[in-house]
Amino acid sequence: MPVASTPPLLALDIGGTSIRAALIERGAVTERLEARTPKPSTPNAVIEAALALAAPLSPRASALGVACAGAVAGGRVTATAIHTFPGWHDVALSEALGAGLNLPCAVLNDARAAAWGEYSAGAGRGQSEFMFVTISTGVGAGLVLGGRLHLAANGLDAELGFVSVPASWTPGTEMPPLGHLGPLEFETSGTALGTQALGLGLNSTRALADAAETGHAQADALYRRSAALIAWKVADIAALLGVQRVALGGSVGLRSGYLARVRASLAVFPERYQPEIVHAELGADAGLIGAGLWAGRSG
Q: How many CB atoms lie within 10 A of CB 18?
């Protein structure tokens, strides 16, 4: 899809720590502003902060795109992490921000926005079936199928972090037929690796990754397990949907050692279930760029 647009597109990225606003031109950020997300992050407080941040940029924009954590359907947002976004249930975010800035507005889940950004202007260019996966605090994903961003009516469009895998924890109940299962995110994310690091006397996810990449056998075993579980689910998605390229992002996913381990684990699957695995290209701007370009496309 073409990424040029005149006048610029306005993008907002609403996260638990910060809110970012940017003008997007030709698939790149040309101007940006940032503010801390208010605490508590109730809907009214966040909307007011986002409007105040974006207001100086809005007169030059033709449309507004918003990337926001949570389940997004029809421009309405319901938090999946209620401790981070309390009170967010079916919030009409598109309506509130669009009216407040007098711009047509489109809202995407943050991982889906990043996927569209990478597809349009980053690592997914030229691929009709593409997936972006972020491995950071949690595990998120977005899917482009047949050149279209996959968006489900209930907002659960590519929740890779919620799929089930064998769990390393033992809940103390009778073993079910498939063993103890848990969400992929609980086993593979940066948060999970950070917890596992403490068991080895290491103080952070980064310390575990550094140790694994310099030959610490126990750290490497945990690091490889995370990568292997991601590879397994990537192979499943390839088998189900024919995805041809997967871009890894996030603080864990962008490490070269992690990418190498995902590729090694994927190599044990049949070749037809081995999509190309690459690093995402747009970094922290993927969601901003994707949200802006989506608004330009939709508006």
A: 12
